[in-house]
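[recover] target loaded
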């Protein structure tokens, strides 16, 4: 078998979005106002000869030169800034070279650094969002081959100051410094003249975010003649296609359209910043066509709410966890967005998973049997397992398995039980007994519920197991929040109401119901002061369990979650 280069095997590819029709696509910072009419006209009137022959770039380079007031020899056109980064790494970086930047920032340079087998050092922001200049400067020494500065930065939205940029340049006179100006037109701040002042500076420009030609993939590099010549040595000679080159000339000729776009974005940004004050925890200042917004613990809930309304945003992770990066649309679309975010919250239904949403009798229950048998050499019946469940206090299957063993006078370390149980149940990335699980309520039925109710989950499962089951059933987007055993301290698992209290704290619903199939579920619901509904699991539809659930305070006991909608309608 032919193998890829060893060092690229762990690279996670940049996620390419599937083709989905969104009412508002606010996740990739495209210019949502659209390109200049001159661009559309140029494409419509294209000479067929421009298609059948290889492209030429004299007019495009001349237009870029005039727009930026930079000599043509200092420019090379590229197939988007992605290709620009690749050329920089190909021309200047060797195996083991050190690259320095900040995080969070655009992720493609990291991928190209991994491809080039470079060491990629990211300095995290200590304060949102103030460039960490002290920590950054401390990392600069003669071993740094390449420094990447994005100004304004994504997803943080802030500009680097002239003072800080000069400090970096002065500290690194023999290091190639890339200034990524993808969003600079929105900030009215550019460093395109810096390559004339500093021989180690390169400016990377995109035409996706300001000129609205993201689909044509067009950008360019500005630097010294020597650096541009070196990049040309390794560049593909015709990577910018003829249509993109023609569109680029038309776009650069229409400065009025760019100014019109900027005015509309500024007006919309001002509206959003004000309107989000009573919804978000923090709206960070932005010098770009996007906003970074902290929604706190409500972030995932609001993200999924917008998805259900066919609005796509970027939910951030890591240092920027709970933040959206939100492309600023035209003012009318910003008003639509705020209207949906402010919609009155629906009543809330919180589901337990096993026995309520999932038939786990051939997975979790069998995993208990097999784990018990592994350590004891004996068999235990499903009926006996259900008896222990009905007693309460055994919501955790690992604890239940240990109790079964202890009652047989067999001592096994808890961590050994957990390890063996997980091998049997989850296996290797989901190839264990979890494959046997049957989803008990269809997506169609859940979607019908979601029209009138918000849906959440509080389960004793581990996070990876819960998410695996939800993704496998294609219903993950319908529930938020999803609280698992990983989200609750060990001493506050069911029947403690901590998980339900977390959900109430995040959503603060006026009305709420919790559905569970065990004594511990009902206890947790009652302790959280939530109307609690008992559900009889597939493996035990007995009157005995029905009476147990009622005795713990269940307002009603249903034969399955499928009966829920009918019950609530009554």
């Amino acid at each position: 078998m032919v193998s890829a280069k060893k060092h690229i095997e762990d690279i996670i590819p940049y996620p390419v979005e599937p083709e989905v029709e969104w009412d508002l696509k606010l996740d990739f910072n495209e210019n949502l106002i659209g390109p200049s009419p001159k661009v559309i006209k140029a494409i419509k009137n294209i000479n067929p000869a421009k298609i059948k022959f290889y492209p030429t770039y004299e007019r495009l380079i001349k237009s870029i030169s005039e727009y930026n007031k930079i000599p043509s020899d200092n420019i090379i056109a590229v197939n988007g800034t992605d290709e620009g980064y690749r050329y920089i790494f190909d021309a200047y970086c060797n195996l083991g070279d050190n690259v320095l930047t900040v995080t969070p920032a655009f992720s493609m340079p990291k991928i190209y650094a991994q491809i080039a087998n470079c060491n990629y050092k990211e300095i995290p922001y200590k304060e949102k969002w103030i460039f960490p200049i002290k920590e950054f400067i401390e990392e600069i020494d003669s071993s740094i081959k390449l420094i990447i500065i994005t100004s304004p930065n994504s997803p943080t939205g802030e500009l680097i100051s002239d003072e800080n940029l000069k400090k970096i340049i002065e500290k690194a006179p023999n290091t190639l410094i890339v200034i990524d100006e993808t969003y600079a037109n929105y900030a009215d701040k550019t460093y395109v003249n810096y390559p004339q002042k500093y021989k180690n500076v390169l400016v990377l420009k995109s035409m996706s975010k300001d000129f609205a030609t993201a689909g044509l993939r067009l950008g360019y590099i500005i630097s010294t003649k020597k650096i541009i010549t070196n990049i040309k040595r390794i560049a593909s000679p015709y990577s910018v296609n003829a249509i993109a080159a023609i569109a680029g000339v038309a776009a650069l000729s229409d400065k009025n359209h760019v100014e019109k776009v900027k005015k509309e974005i500024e007006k919309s940004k001002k509206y959003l910043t004000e309107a989000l004050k009573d919804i978000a925890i923090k709206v960070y200042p932005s010098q770009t066509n996007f906003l970074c917004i902290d929604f706190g613990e409500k972030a995932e809930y609001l993200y999924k709410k917008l998805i259900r309304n066919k609005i796509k945003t970027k939910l951030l992770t890591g240092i920027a966890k709970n933040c959206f990066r939100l492309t600023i649309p035209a003012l009318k679309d910003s008003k639509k967005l705020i209207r949906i975010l402010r919609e009155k919250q629906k009543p809330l239904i919180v589901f337990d998973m096993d026995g309520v949403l999932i038939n786990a009798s051939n997975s979790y229950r069998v995993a208990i049997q097999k784990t018990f048998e592994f350590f004891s050499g004996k068999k235990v019946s499903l009926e006996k397992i259900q008896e222990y469940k009905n007693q309460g206090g055994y919501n955790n299957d690992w604890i239940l398995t240990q109790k079964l063993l202890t009652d047989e006078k067999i001592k096994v370390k808890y961590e050994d039980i957990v390890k063996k149980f997980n091998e049997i149940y989850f296996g290797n990335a989901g190839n264990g007994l979890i494959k046997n699980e049957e989803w008990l309520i269809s997506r169609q039925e859940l979607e019908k519920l979601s029209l009138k109710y918000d849906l959440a989950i509080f389960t004793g499962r581990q996070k990876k197991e819960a998410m695996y089951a939800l993704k496998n059933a294609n219903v993950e987007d319908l529930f938020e929040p999803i609280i698992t055993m990983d989200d609750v301290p060990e001493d506050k698992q069911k029947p403690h109401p901590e998980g339900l209290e977390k959900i109430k704290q995040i959503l603060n619903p006026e009305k709420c119901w919790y559905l569970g199939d065990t004594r511990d579920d009902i206890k947790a619901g009652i302790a959280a002061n939530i109307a609690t509904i008992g559900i009889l699991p597939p493996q035990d539809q007995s009157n005995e369990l029905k009476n147990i659930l009622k005795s713990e305070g269940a307002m009603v006991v249903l034969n399955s979650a499928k009966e829920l909608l009918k019950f609530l309608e009554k």
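[recover] notes: The chain has a mean pLDDT of 95.
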